[in-house]
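Q: Got a minute? One more chain.
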Amino acid sequence: MLYGSSEDMLPLDPVTILLSIMACIFLATVINKQKEDVHPNYPPGPKPWPIIGNILNLDVHKPYLSFQELAKMYGPVYSIKIGVQKMVVLCGYDVVKEALITQAEVFSDRPYIPVFYYITRGYGVIYSNGQNWKTMRQFTISTLRDFGMGTRTIEDKINEESNYLVQAFNSYKGEPFNHDMIMNAAVSNIIVSILLGHRLDYDDPKLQRLLTIVMENLRIAGSPMALLYNAFPFLMSWIPGSHKSIRQNSDEFNAYIREIFTKKRNQLDANDQRSLIDSFLIKQKEEKPNPELYFHDENLTAVVSDLFYAGMETTSTTLRWGLLLMMKYPEIQKKVQNEIEKVIGSAEPQMVHRKHMPYTDAVIHEIQRFANIAPTNMPHQTTQDITLKGFFLPKGSFIIPSLTSVLRDDKYFKKPYDFYPQHFLDTDGNFVKNEAFLPFSAGKRSCAGENMGKMELFLFFTKLLQNFTFTAPPGAKLDLNGAVGFTLRPQEHDICAVPRY
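A: Always. Here it is, folded:
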């Protein structure tokens, strides 16, 4: 969807514009008076304009590209202002590693971001802080493990779902089709089976609606209107635009979640826990003497929302990039298929096969690196004063650790802007790790479902290439420029899944 559409246009009424400017100037003046003092060792950066800060220095559709360019002028640690919000951008693997891994505890908080606050209200795992975050993250990781993350149990679920996906692709008999929603549904069913205890049919209207909400919210969250809303929340809260849809979508999504766990609470059996929601509700009962501590309904709603967003979007988007790249580079696709035939044949793909498939493993890693689906990463916030690379960062600093700069770091990747599986292969064709490979981020805030995501990518990808050869529809041009959004997705396109057997 284009961002020049009417839903993203500011109103042209002169009175509204005048009032907006006056309100903006007043707010900026008040806040700037409180933030004028800058430490002499604060990171350098472009001089901000009054009120708007450095917005004019950014490509508002793809700010991660601007971050790369600014790093060339100001170094790997520099500062910018978006509106009145000061931010520090970290570029390159070395500095991101020092912040997120070496100084992990200091960089473990999340800043307040209005557009994301509407989704979780500050609860759950991804956007919460302090003891609430620690408790919810520990519960989430331990419960995901209880329900099979990283084990044969979840592997069997993924293989079962991949068979449904193959059936869905086969139904098009090699003709062009858009696979976005099908892929989203298949991947989301893995986390849905853990959250609810069962999968949903791809054409289930409720699943279709939830997937639509997630895709729309992530698109809007990366739009220019969302950037303006985050910069001027008070002003933008009464200006029409697509940013307002996030709250409406989130309210609808959360209402559905609450409806589900309300039903489960009435049927709860502590001796028969079949889902993550069941496990949370049991914890809620155990915490009954302190009902408002951590295991309350707001946290449950946010945790389920976090897992649905993260469990569907990242893996699904990576797989869609993978199929697009296989269509773009058929010689690489053929090499993967040859290795699948040699190692797996027509048997069910298993995780034990991966160590015998270095080329396929390298291709999957390179898909993740090249796709760069979380280009700006989730912002961090410092928990105390810290000096990083000689620069002073006060407590509460808003930090943007650029994953684009890590995955495109030419110090660690020979051809950072090319799709080049050899980044993960030695001269003998053996798979090699690369320390700058951080698609799941790193440190205290790294993706809680990383192990499950890796398993999904390998099993879904090998299953699809085992059964199909992917080609572009006749006359179609394959565009490798990502679409605008908080996550970087392929431009909308059709595929042809030609059966191999």
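A: The longest helix spans residues 297-328.
Q: Perfect, thanks.
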